[in-house]
# Entry
Amino acid sequence: MTSSEIRQHFLDFFRQKDHLIVPSAPLVAKNDPTLMFNNSGMAQFKDFFLGNGTPPARRVADTQKCLRVSGKHNDLEDVGFDTYHHTMFEMLGNWSFGDYFKKEAISWAWELLTEVYKLPKDRLYVSVFQGDEKDGVPFDQEAWDLWKPIVGENRIILGNKKDNFWEMGDTGPCGPCSEIHVDLRPQAEVDQKPGKELVNADHPQVVEIWNLVFMQFNRKADGSLEPLPARHVDTGMGFERLCMAIQSKLSNYDTDVFTNTIRVIEELSGITYTGSQREYPDVAMRVIADHIRAVSFAIADGLIPSNARAGYVIRRILRRAVRYGYSYLGFTEPFLTKLVPTLALQFADVFPELNAQRDFVATVIREEEAAFLRTLENGLKLLDKITAELTEKSQKTIDGETVFELNDTFGFPVDLTALIARENGFSIDEAGFQKALQAQKARSRKDASSSTGDWTELHDIDGVEFLGYDQTQAEARIAKYRKVQNKQGTQYQIVLDRTPFYAESGGQIGDTGSLELQVGDEKVLIRIADTKKENDLIIHISNDKDLETVLDNHSAVLAKVDADRRTAISDNHSATHLLHAALRDVLGTHVAQKGSYVGPDALRFDFSHFAKVTDDELTEVERIVNQKIRENIPLDEKRNVPIEEAKKLGAMALFGEKYGDFVRVITFDPSYSVELCGGTHVPATGQIGLFKFTSEGSVSTGVRRIEAVTAEKALALLNEQQATLDQLKELLKAPKDVVKAVQALLDERSQLQKKIDALEAEKLQQVKADLLTKVHASNGHYVIVERVDVPSADALKQLAYDLKAKLDNLAVVLGSDIGGKPQLAVMLPDELIKDKNLHAGNLVKELAKEIRGGGGGQPFFATAGGSDATGLDRALAKGRELLK
Ligand code: ATP
Ligand code: MG
# Structure
């Protein structure tokens, strides 16, 4: 069975059991402050478990792209060294939202594995939660009773809280689980030792493939558990491990999920993959075959490698792969980029987003690789220097701070530093490095530390009704609130049953405004500083103090959005759509949105394009956008359009965005701009008034950024520029043509400069001639010590050199007052330097004391500057004395 068939059978099986098959959410988690990447199938359904939203169906199944490289689930260090943990993997899952429970979940899992996939029953083991007294959770008798008749008592293993109690985070839904493990060892080994003894013992061929989680509880911030309103099933099966089991392989990397990629790595490196567990070229190939998936799919889902947050995680994974290739496979040029086409093709049917952006992803990866390969070389040079210094001092250990610096500034992985050190007969101070690393971690933890209190529930809601497309004011009730402590201080987060406040998303900034409450005869205002989304909740954030009493006792509010600010935001959002369409017109349809910011003051639009946008192109884009504004195209807003229909309308969907089955379509002229968008917009484009660019630049490889302003801000920008021009005209005495006038000034200036230069050169000649008449002999050498009038320190230096060229065996001390700043120059002949041990640098320092200054230079020539011009003559007198 091929991996594609295996995936398909899974989806078909659950479709037949009345499950709705849904697409994978993007790798990068959205609207979830507790999660950077989706790390399990259930992440995108979190809200349904919490009762905050309604699922599209009560039975759902899918395959979800997961990434486990940060936070609670981090498998990075195992990847490549073992054969069954990946950074990115697919998790096949089926869900029941308050529908079926343990009985169906267990019997269907068994049916699928043994009847559809035909896995041998005597190689499967299951685990059941043994209970935990401290948490007050009992033994999972129900699961035990269900499994017993299916697998028999001796194939059931009791598991503790670590293995058999699933929690999605520090807080939130959780419950006991039953895992299914498979024993893939050769029969001879099985005969020697029963598989049961190897379950959960990190054996590479006795692995967990499926986890059936039975959600029954909600973990609260204080650590206590409360039963969930409805019980749910959440299962997750590792697709790559399942393929290993069905295809009778000993490693995930031997399945057809990975063999294509490994073959390309073999071709590029000329090294054959042998599948060995510990040999380095093999480990490196596995790391690379794994990491390229994580990096490619993350970029396809909209992430760009960077120095912050999720972007940095991707950058680190990419660098890890590059260094494995460099150290063990001899890749000194970008090579990861060459793996992208194979991957894109292989997943074109399941995850088409990669194939659709293949060239873009390959380019981003190539540039990242090239950049890191350059620092890799710089880092190596630095290491050379460090080891040379250590050798001089007869030391053998590179200290921890240095190792940390290599890691921090050069992105140099510690193990690479250790390896290179070892090759050169050195070791690294691992403990010192860890100390420096921990210190940094502690610093960043302190920065990010925040604590979130439990919700205080005032009214039960099914979900939040968003009214903001139609109104900016509405009466509502407070559903719940909580207190959050973070760097900015204490915040209140308030959820209403219905709200006109737009929560930050899709690049559009959150609304501000107020909640008005009637307290007795008095009106109380709660100021709302921002609005954010958390999964499907709309959270109003207030920085006001001590709101508990008000919030606990009054739930009816009048929610008022700052309407002027919202209008300015809508102007910018609609302008962004017009801009997007114009860019595709002018630059080509490869232009895809890579990020945007829509605020009240300005808009920012990032998009894929491989060259600078020329001035002509910008002018044309701006012209089109303004034309569309003048056409006053009315907004055509369609809500709840089935996604397929929206795509037929030609709506531009963004990669890396999660869309439901029903979407909102924003159209400004069906032949011009059709986008899937949840933002707020103008009723007709004329409201935008005016659109002006403020900048164009590059964000990263292949991504350009345009910034622009609209409406009043655009007018203000033009007025500012007009005012500057008016001032210029006034200064230039109102010429007919300002540009011509400025050009004339510049021409005149350069003419004058030429004249000045010529005059000064002439004058310098004169000064030189005068000086030569003042030479006198002293003790076998010539001396000139004089005060001169020259325009610059450079001229003074030039003069000294010219004199030296004229006369052998000449000592010169020149002083000059250049615009109030005294300068000295000393030139000595070789004879004085050798015979009398004189040094121009020392001499000038001595003289500079008189002008309250300092200086220095070489033995034969030195200069000094000072702050007291009245001391010049004293300095020269001293010079005369010293050169006697
Ligand atoms: P393990 O103990 O093997 O790390 P887990 O307990 O972390 O697994 P779950 O969180 O229960 O796994 O995830 C459900 C399933 O996803 C697992 O049964 C396994 O098949 C698969 N899985 C988990 N982590 C990985 C990974 N890093 N790479 C590939 N598959 C994985
Ligand atoms: Mg794990």
Notes: The first strand starts at residue 20 and ends at 21. The mean pLDDT is 91. The first helix runs from residue 3 to 16.
